[in-house]
Design goal:
Elements lengths: L2 H4 L4 E2 L20 E2 L1 H10 L2 H10 L2 H8 L4 H10 L2 H10 L2 H10 L2 H8 L4 H9 L3 H10 L2 H11 L6 H4 L6 E3 L4 H11 L8 E5 L5 E6 H6 L6 H4 L6 E3 L4 H10 L4 E5 L5 E6 H19 L14 H32 L5 H4 L1 H24 L8 H33 L25 H38 L9 H23 L8
C-alpha cells in the first residue's frame, strides 16, 4: 500500500482512532474528501492514475473545494492534464474568482475544450458576473449553439425564470411513439440536464405536457406520448420571478418545470437543483435583510472587509438615527423616575423580551409569505390566529416575570434605593431588613408595573410583527427589509411609552405615601 493510501487525511475517511474533533466525516455522513495539498502534489507529479482514482471516489464539489486553494499554475495544469469531459462538472463548482483566473490563464485551445463541456445555464451565470474582457473571451471560445444559448439566457432579468433556466432538455412531439422516444433518449439523453422529465409539444410547437421517465419505461412501445403524458403539468413564463418558480417546483414535487415564452412555446426548463439554489440564496438574503445587512453576493470568507463594511454601515447609521426616538423617551423617564431609579434597571428586560417575542413571529410570517402559505389578503385571519397565541405567550411571560422580578429585589440583585431602613441600608434578604409591609408593598408595585408592561409590550410586538411584513408584501415590497431592525425600533419606543404610563399609574402616584 502506497503512502497516500495509508494517510486518510489526503483521501478517504478518517481513522477510528483519530481524535474525534479532527475527523472530516461524522458517523452519519460517510464521504471521501481530498485536501488541497494532496491534490497539488498529485498534479505536480502528473500522476494520472491517482487523478483518475480521485475523480472516481471523491464528489466533484469536494474536489472543486480543494482546487479553489490551488495556485493558478497548478489549476491550469489540472485542467490540461484531465479530460474536459471529466472536469466539466468541476468548473461549475469552482468559485467565481477561480473561474476568472482560469479563463485568463488557459490557452484558447484549452479554453474551448473546457467551455463547450459546460451546461449553458451554469456558464451564463459565470459569464454574467465576469468582467467584459473575460466574458468576451468565454463567448469567443463557445461554439455557435452554446453562444446562442448563453446570449438567450443573459437577455433576461437576473431574478426571472429565463435567467436560471437551462436550454438543454428533452422535447418530443406528442405524436411520437414510446418506442422511438426511448431510443432517442438513449441517443441524446446524456446531453440533457435531466432525463427524468420529458417535455411534450404539439405540431404548432406549443407545450402541452410532460412524461415522467418511469411512465415512459412501463408504457407500451406503440403508444404515443400524447396517450401517457401529464396534461396538467405546471409551467412558468420566462419573466416569472425565480422564487415563484422554486415554489412551483416545491409545491408540485417536480424534477423540472417548463419555461414558456409569450407564444406558449418551450424555451427552457428549470430543474429541482436550480430551484434548491434559489431557495438557499433567497433564505440567505432574507436572513441578511432581517439583521440589517444588505445582501452579499459572495461567500463570507471571499468578501473584502471594505465591501462588508459598505453593506453593513448604512443600515447601522439608519438604525442609529431611529434609536433617537428611544433616547428621547428614556430622557423623559430619567426625570419622571428620578426618585424611583429601580424602574430604570428593568428597561433592558422589557425592550429585549418584547423584541425577541416579535422576532419569533416575524420570522414565521416572512417564511409563510415566501412559501405562499398565506398572502396579504389573509391579514385578518393571520393576525387573529397570532393574537390568540400572543395573549397566551404574553400572559405566561408576564406571570413568570412577576415572580422573578420579586425574587430579584428580595435577593438584592436589583436594589430599590427609594426604600431604605432606619440605618440608611438598602433592603434585601442579606441585610435581613426586608421582612416588612413597606418593602413588600414597594416590591409588589415594581414587579406589577414591569410585568404588566411586559404583557402589553409582548402582545403589541407580536401584532406589529405580523403587520409589518404583510403590509410590505401588500405594497409589493420585500417583507424582509422592514423586519427585525424596524420592528425593534417600533417596539422599543412603544414599550418605553407603555412603561412610563403604567409606572406612573401604579407607583408614582403612591410615592408620597411610601
Amino acid at each position: 500500500m502506497d503512502e497516500e493510501e495509508k494517510d486518510p487525511r489526503h483521501l478517504g475517511e478518517s481513522p477510528e482512532d483519530e481524535n474525534e474533533g479532527k475527523t472530516e466525516q461524522s458517523e452519519e455522513v460517510r464521504v471521501k474528501t481530498i485536501s488541497t495539498d494532496h491534490l497539488a502534489e498529485v498534479i505536480q507529479r502528473k500522476d494520472s492514475a491517482e487523478l483518475k482514482r480521485i475523480f472516481d471516489e471523491v464528489p466533484d464539489i469536494d474536489i472543486a473545494e480543494a482546487a479553489d486553494g490551488l495556485e493558478i499554475k497548478d489549476l491550469i495544469n489540472f485542467f490540461r492534464d484531465v479530460s474536459s469531459s471529466t472536469t466539466a462538472e468541476l468548473f461549475e463548482e469552482l468559485s467565481q474568482d477561480k473561474k476568472e483566473e482560469l479563463v485568463k490563464g488557459l490557452t484558447d485551445k484549452d479554453l474551448v475544450k473546457v467551455i463547450n463541456e459546460q451546461a449553458a445555464d451554469d456558464l451564463a451565470d459565470a459569464v454574467g458576473d465576469m468582467p467584459a474582457n473575460l466574458a468576451k473571451r468565454v463567448l469567443h471560445a463557445a461554439d455557435k449553439d452554446m453562444r446562442a444559448d448563453i446570449n438567450q439566457i443573459l437577455k433576461y432579468k437576473p431574478d426571472t425564470a429565463g435567467a436560471i433556466m437551462t436550454t438543454e432538455y428533452l422535447e418530443f412531439r406528442q405524436s411520437e411513439s414510446v418506442g422511438d422516444t426511448i431510443e432517442a433518449v438513449r441517443t441524446i439523453g446524456r446531453e440533457a440536464e435531466t432525463v427524468y422529465t420529458i417535455f411534450v409539444r404539439n405540431d404548432k410547437r406549443k407545450f402541452v405536457g410532460t412524461v415522467d421517465l418511469d411512465d415512459l419505461i412501463f408504457a407500451k412501445k406503440d403508444e404515443s406520448l400524447g396517450d401517457i403524458m401529464n396534461h396538467d403539468a405546471p409551467s412558468v413564463h420566462v419573466q416569472t420571478d425565480k422564487e415563484e418558480v422554486a415554489n412551483v417546483i416545491s409545491r408540485y414535487d417536480l424534477n423540472a418545470v417548463a419555461v414558456l415564452n409569450d407564444d406558449e412555446c418551450l424555451t427552457g426548463i428549470v430543474t429541482v437543483d436550480d430551484a434548491l439554489d434559489v431557495m438557499t440564496a433567497e433564505a440567505n438574503e432574507d436572513i441578511e435583510k432581517m439583521n440589517a445587512v444588505s445582501p452579499i453576493e459572495d461567500e463570507f470568507l471571499e468578501t473584502h472587509p471594505w465591501k462588508m463594511a459598505k453593506k453593513c454601515l448604512p443600515w447601522i447609521c439608519v438604525l442609529l438615527f431611529l434609536d433617537t426616538f428611544s433616547t428621547m423617551v428614556v430622557d423623559k423617564l430619567q426625570y419622571q423616575f428620578e426618585v424611583y431609579k429601580i424602574l430604570i434597571a428593568f428597561i433592558p428586560v422589557i425592550m429585549d423580551t418584547a423584541g425577541n417575542a416579535g422576532g419569533q413571529t416575524i420570522s414565521l410570517i416572512i417564511r409563510g409569505l415566501a412559501t405562499k402559505e398565506f398572502e396579504p389578503k389573509d391579514f385578518w385571519k393571520v393576525i387573529g390566529r397570532e393574537a390568540q397565541s400572543a395573549l397566551l405567550i404574553a400572559a405566561g411571560a408576564a406571570g413568570f416575570g412577576f415572580v422573578w422580578f420579586t425574587v430579584e429585589q428580595y435577593l438584592g440583585l436589583v436594589s430599590n434605593t427609594a426604600i431604605l431602613d432606619a440605618d440608611g441600608l438598602v433592603m434585601n434578604v442579606w441585610n435581613g431588613n426586608c421582612w416588612n409591609l413597606t418593602y413588600f408593598s414597594a416590591t409588589m408595585r415594581v414587579s406589577l408595573s414591569v410585568a404588566i408592561t411586559l404583557f402589553v409590550a409582548i402582545f403589541l410586538s407580536k401584532i406589529v410583527a405580523v403587520s409589518l411584513p404583510i403590509g410590505a408584501a401588500a405594497v409589493k415590497k420585500d417583507p424582509a427589509i422592514v423586519s427585525q431592525p424596524l420592528l425593534t425600533t417600533v417596539v422599543d419606543v412603544s414599550s418605553l411609552l407603555i412603561y412610563l404610563g403604567i409606572a406612573a399609574l401604579i407607583i408614582l402616584q403612591f410615592l408620597p405615601a411610601a
